[in-house]
Write a structure and sequence with these properties.
about 60 residues; Ribosomal Protein L30, Chain: A; three-stranded antiparallel β-sheet; alpha+beta; 2 helices
Length: about 60
């Protein structure tokens, strides 16, 4: 199964509460923080919600 490498490139401060909560759920707490998550529909949906704040790579 493929994984996604997700990097926070913009700050979460000043964003909507649901977007901040989504970033927390992904494990992204600081700018330039990177996490690896499985490539599934739930993670893809979370990434779509904050796509303007993150960079995603398939690994």
């Amino acid at each position: 199964m493929a994984n996604l490498k997700i990097t926070l490139v913009k700050s979460k401060y000043g964003r909507l509460k649901d977007q901040q909560a989504t970033l927390e759920a992904l494990g992204l707490r600081k700018v330039n923080a990177t996490v690896e998550k499985p490539d599934n529909a739930a993670i893809r949906g979370m990434v779509f919600k904050v796509k303007h704040l993150v960079k995603v790579e398939e690994i």
